[in-house]
């Protein structure tokens, strides 16, 4: 779109539409007919405002360097853009006349160079409440954990998944090459490319407006009377009180606070050393391909998560402390703020729930021990024995092979008897285990849940062995039957070429194959019944552990703080922007009496109304699906692993169904932690910085309009 095509685009804050008195419009000029309104300064001459902007008088006494905001907004200075409610004042061709009233929700704007006006109304976000708008949805995961292709690089994939991943990447490369030969998107115009700067201007406009309104009072001359005797006495008393408070505060800051700070840093470093030693043990592997302790045990995984959180919190807090040395309009640290307090809140809730749970377990340890022992004996031993005995005696009317069923049943019952002896030896120390679990609950409810998950894995190990044995027997029998079936067809399976080839068999081979096929085929139902029973038990245990892991994921990663912000103040969780065209009546009834630049005759502008359209720029809050995107990815990952055709084929053929890797299952809970944790020396360096950020910022120097800014906006001649 050309720059001077007659279309004027005005970004107008919604709260500036209620001024009545004459004022001067101040803001940025992004292009000739593209302006952004920052503030309206009332009861001050336009020439005075213009001179004050050039001298930098309106941006003095800023809490932070003003050049920081100007760099974000892509402009070096602000300008006078026009006047409001002043039809008799002459303005330049590129400046505007605006007419506002409290009753009029929309401003009436006129410009000599504009043939069409487009007013984009927006509600300014409040930086002191951490409100802002953004083109992209806010990310609740760390930047090094976000994969633009929706593929987690740290996942452990099976061979089939690796092959599918390669095919998917090849197809993406082909699609990318096809895009080079097709016109899918036209190049962005200059105004579209400036959208990011406009978003930053919207975020910074509220703070700049406050700064301008504060400094414009110095341009107004108010008579000041002298203080009376009583007022001077009160002022001197207040001065003495302030001096005492300041001296006391200085004593605390210079002597007491450094000692407390050093002691706290030493405690943190000692804790960090202990945590690092424990993390090394949890992550140690005998070989690179072997599993670590945290990959085997849910308890070790939970301890690893908590220790990494404790190691990351000091670094995260120091990073968030830097916010006070910068403008509140700078929104780079807002996602870190949400992640930090969300993790703190989750840990606090975890500890509160754990204290309640631990108190209940300790107070009722006898009852808990008896019920747990009875439940485990019933379902892991007695129910399994009854099921196997039922399978040995023609279950559901199925006529199985008595000898094979008796052999398999006696074998499994013999193992269960030995396992029941082991469980009987465990019963005397079960109350101590329950007491330990209850005591561990004071560290959080997630710890007893992970202990219970490991406890289930240990006490159901015999069911896992039964499943593996029956699956292996069934798979062998299925493979042999498949090979013998190819023998009847006069074919064989070529292992090297992985195909079916023709083959001529002798009569003896065919006779022996027929006998073996008949025997194995009639024995197959017996093996299948045992295999199906133990596979069902195994799937039930996997489902129970998946529920426990889901509960752990909610305790460790649930976006509780983000949900609270979404309900309380959705502007703190931006999910993008949208434009809404406002239906307005024809503005011909609004008469703007404007003086022509050449002569002093006043004309009625109602005869030549400039077509004006009003568009509302609104911030779209982050959708609830965006908050739980990690949960959807985890659910999709579990569904692809267990509820897929590959798993069904493994169950049918008797091949082992591997459980989902713990690294893939727990990747959700590590999204708020960095991919590489900071070392001890790095943490010591960050916590023991001698130079204060406030001193660094107080010595900041910049230039504005050819003048050197000393401090935060005080102009000096260069």
UniProtKB/TrEMBL annotation:
UniProt lineage: Eukaryota, Fungi, Dikarya, Ascomycota, Pezizomycotina
Transmembrane segments: 263-284, 344-362, 404-426, 433-453, 510-534, 546-565
Keyword Chaperone: no
GO biological process entries: GPI anchor biosynthetic process
GO terms assigned for molecular function: transferase activity
One cellular component (GO) term of this entry: membrane
InterPro entries: PigQ/GPI1
Name of the protein described by the UniProt record: Putative n-acetylglucosaminyl transferase component gpi1
Keywords: Membrane, Transferase, Transmembrane, Transmembrane helix
Native organism: Uncinula necator
Region listing for Disordered, in residue ranges: 696-718
